[in-house]
Amino acid sequence: MNILIADDEEGFRGLLRDALGSDPTIQLTSACNAMEAWWHLSDLEQRFDVGIFDIKMPQVNGFSLLKRVRSCPRYRHLPVIVCSGNNDRETILQSGQLAASYYLVKPFKLENLLSKIQEFGQRRRPVASARLPSSSSASPIPGAS
């Protein structure tokens, strides 16, 4: 199972690497911001089965990344777990409106995240073979320069 982590906190990415890195069936790819995450998603050599996105990241936030993922035929159905320190109703509702698969408020029990990763990994859908827009088109993520 290939998992993409997009979070600007190195400690959080390291925690997930430590928790999941020993499982030979899991391949982790980390991104420190939304633009780097989109770069990984745009790589036609990679296919992700689950995304774990933070909302509050520098430059481009996780909502913009999630919106872009949902508009891409290749990843429209990618299960995305939002892990954020924001626990206000508006943020959680916006995540749902953008079709986040699950929302976890930081800090949370690692077992809850691992359970959701396993659940979504078992329900994997085939990834569409559609090509992503070329890099010469508009900014890959709304709000990016």
TrEMBL record:
SMART domains: REC. Gene3D superfamilies: 3.40.50.2300. Pfam families: Response_reg (PF00072). The modification 4-aspartylphosphate is found at residue 54. Keywords: Phosphoprotein. The keyword Phosphoprotein applies. One of its GO terms (biological process) is phosphorelay signal transduction system. Residues 2-121 form the Response regulatory domain. InterPro entries: Bact_response_regulator, CheY-like_superfamily, Sig_transdc_resp-reg_receiver. It comes from the Bacteria. This is Two-component system response regulator. It comes from Nibricoccus aquaticus. The lineage of its organism: Bacteria, Pseudomonadati, Verrucomicrobiota, Opitutia, Opitutales.
